[in-house]
Amino acid sequence: MRVVAVVNQKGGAGKTTTVMNLAAVAAQSSKVLVVDADPQASVTMWATNAEELPEKEQLQFDVATETDPEALTQMRDLDYDTVFVDTPGNLENIQVLKAIVSQSDFIVMPTEATPLALLPLVYTFEKIVQPFGLDYRVVITKADSRSPQDALDAQEMLREQGILVCNSFVRAYKAHERAPMYGTVVTSYEKTRNSEKATMDYKDVALELFSLWAQTRKG
Ligand SMILES: Nc1ncnc2c1ncn2[C@@H]1O[C@H](COP(=O)(O)OP(=O)(O)OP(=O)(O)O)[C@@H](O)[C@H]1O
Ligand SMILES: [Mg+2]
What we know:
Layout: E1 2-6, H1 15-26, E2 32-36, H2 42-50, E3 62-65, H3 69-72, E4 82-86, H4 94-103, E5 106-111, H5 115-129, E6 135-140, H6 149-160, H7 174-182, H8 193-214
Parallel strand pairs: 1-4, 1-5, 2-3, 2-4, 5-6
The structure holds adenosine-5'-triphosphate and magnesium ion (MG).
Protein name: ParA family protein
Domain CobQ/CobB/MinD/ParA nucleotide binding: 4-182
Pfam family, one: CbiA
């Protein structure tokens, strides 16, 4: 099994959206659990809304709510191929965060491309990710869908600091913004032109990560 924690101390960076959509894509070919370790319980709320959807649009992965660091250390005993962990967006819960990161095989760090977002991202990387020596990738989220330049500049700026960044990035679309309320994920979005683009973005990020993980297969 592989435990993937989605981390960034900056609030609103796109952690929960990334967890839900990577889990949805991964669940098309493997057994997936999402652990909601954020006291805000956004994943739990999202999954509750999904229960109202028709059968074929139901989430294809399991969801567990767990904020106790002790219980989180037992994640690895569960029978799943991949566990995605959604984490809180602040440093108040640094003990929880450290407990999660110490159980994880890989860290995904979503961030917006703006300078004010990149500072806390780099801080999170130095405080939470680097000390554990874990493999990780930054994923740029909420990129301007009409001009990718800011996202490309942010990728370049991070790479210049020696930080690893996914080539694929996620653009800002209404479909993502509405999704928590309807309980939808990219695999259940309606088939409009923009929501298909929104779906493609997370599929591209997922494929990039899956091929990376395939090179370091876990038992
Ligand atoms: N690609 C996107 N396009 C449009 N809206 C997005 C996108 N990604 C996230 N959002 C919206 O931005 C807001 C923050 O996203 P999200 O909740 O995923 O971030 P978070 O890092 O989990 O936040 P928190 O730190 O509060 O847990 C939400 O309203 C979400 O719907
Ligand atoms: Mg969240």
